[in-house]
Structures are given as C-alpha cells and as structure tokens.
Write a structure and sequence with these properties.
alpha+beta, four-stranded antiparallel sheet, 3 helices, 36% strand
Length: 104
C-alpha cells in the first residue's frame, strides 16, 4: 500500500535511504484511507488502516476496515461494503484529545 509513496520520495532525489524514508512516512501518518477505481469505474474506499510505526525497517500497519464485495456484484456493477476487521485502534490519543471516543 505504501510502496508508491516510497517510490515518489526516492524519485525526488532527496538522497535518503529507504529505512529513513519509511521511518518518516510512519511518523507522519496516523491513518491511511485507500481508495481505488473498480472494474465498473466507480471509486470506493478499499481499506482503512492505522499506521503503527516502523519496526525493523518495515512500516507496521493495522487494518481496521476492508472492502468486501457482495454476491450481488456483476461485471457491470460492483456492490459491497466496508467491514470491520476486529482489530483494535491502538493510537487513539488524538481522538481522545479532541473529546472523541474511537469505539474501535
């Protein structure tokens, strides 16, 4: 999911090694919302993922919601919905600061 972002930074000729880029990405992002264009040309949210940090040079992700296609889908019309993975939200600090409760 993050390889495209890593590639863009590498192409920017900043001269940073990949582990440093990954560390910066993981410290800059809290939540990633992955959108995609599907076969019926619609755009859907495919995944909502929490960024946990960087460990051993790899960005650690915690998927919270994923798109599941339903049986009613056809080639012409994709049907589905976001489904909770059951993984808890670990970094809810900013939500609590704003007075919100994550509920995840």
């Amino acid at each position: 999911m993050l390889s495209r972002l890593e590639t863009m930074v590498l192409q920017g000729n900043a001269g940073l090694p990949l582990p440093a880029i990954r560390q910066q990405i993981s410290s800059a992002l809290d939540i990633i919302i992955h959108l995609s264009r599907l076969r019926d040309k619609s755009r859907r949210t495919m995944e909502i993922t929490e960024v946990l940090g960087c460990k051993n040079g790899e960005i650690q992700l915690n998927p919270l919601f994923v798109f599941k296609e339903t049986q009613g889908s056809t080639l012409e019309k994709v049907q589905g919905r976001l489904v909770r993975t059951g993984n808890p939200l670990y970094n809810d600090y900013k939500l609590r600061l704003s007075g919100m409760h994550s509920g995840l």
